[in-house]
Amino acid sequence: MLFTYSNTHAQHAPSTIIVRGNPIQNWEQPARAEQLQKYLESAGHDAVPTQEWDRKWIAAVHTPDYLTFLESAYERWQQFIAKNPEAGKGPAGSAIHAHVFAHHSARQQPSSIQGQVGYYLSGGSCPLDQGTWAAALGSANTALTAASLLQQGVQEAYALCRPPGHHAYADMAGGFCYLNNAAIAANYLAKHMGRVAILDVDAHHGNGTQSIFYERNDVHFVSIHGDPNVLFPFYAGYPHERGHGAGLGYNLNIPLPLGTEDDAFMAAVNHGMSSILNYAPGALVVSLGFDPFLGDPSAGLAVSTEGFRTMGKAIARYQGPILLIQEGGYVIDHLAANLSAFLDGFLGSR
After folding, report:
1. Catalytic residue among 167, 204, 205, 334
2. What are the tens digits of pLDDT across the range 229-266?
3. How large is the average pLDDT for residues 335-342?
4. Which domain holds residue 199?
5. What pLDDT does residue 94 have?
6. Residue 225 catalytic?
7. What is the value of pTM for the model shown?
8. In this structure, is residue 148 part of a structural domain?
9. Which of 87, 105, 262, 328 could pair covalently with 291 via S-S, beta carbons 3.0-4.6 A apart?
10. Residue 325's closest CA among 140, 111, 172?
11. Is 14 part of any domain?
């Protein structure tokens, strides 16, 4: 199988996130991608160098003001700290963390960097460091490069994206995500290959992806995730969210109770795949998270390594071109085994 990867991800390495009001060690570490890359190479999968893409494909999904913020925020924050040294002290190190959070129904966008940090960074799990923009841009380019392989006739490709992307809105970061890799790739494929489906199997609802396509009928979004009443992102991912306008009926959320094990999770995957097969897309994008894994610190589901093998088989029911895009998964020592099991089931059924 062909896979794409960019070393720029290592430039993004904030040490701390804020969870339930407490600063803790960041789960989303460079070692995640390094372990997955090492496995892919050892298993004989072929790497395709990530290309630098015209930013129009990113701007087609994200707003100009948000992209300007991501690109300039760190430098502007350093200028702010130079004038306000107390702002640079604390357990977060050099990374930028918001301390106030705006609802985006607010009409006024503040001009100050401290106000914009709270406007564009939606929580304590999306710190912005010196290398965040470069890493996020490299991750989006990784997804676009893999998407272009499908356009060229490749039937399956894997984009090893870091940072992940499915919590990023058009104008807001969240949950370790800055640019929405899956949405950028899906929008590209929709322009070249007709209708596209997105299957999100990360433990957390793909709220950013849902928002981006909520009023479109050329992208069918299906998300299988832990119950948002008790699990991030809390404010989206409910069954009644079915799309709006032209997109009504093209959004399917399948929330699951915490503690869900293999059988119930796979029943949800099969339900989602049936909806996708009925939609008959020209390509399928899979937001592939390994945080449903039992013991993942970010979630509360209980899928086994063998469960990911079964998931791979279920997704292979769709016989058209499939793009796998890496999302979450934070039990670093088990990432390689979980990807190996998934690909064994997936590729073995293609």
Report:
1. 167
2. 999 999 999 999 999 999 999 999 999 999 999 999 99
3. 99
4. 2-62+129-347
5. 64
6. no
7. 0.96
8. yes
9. 328
10. 140
11. yes
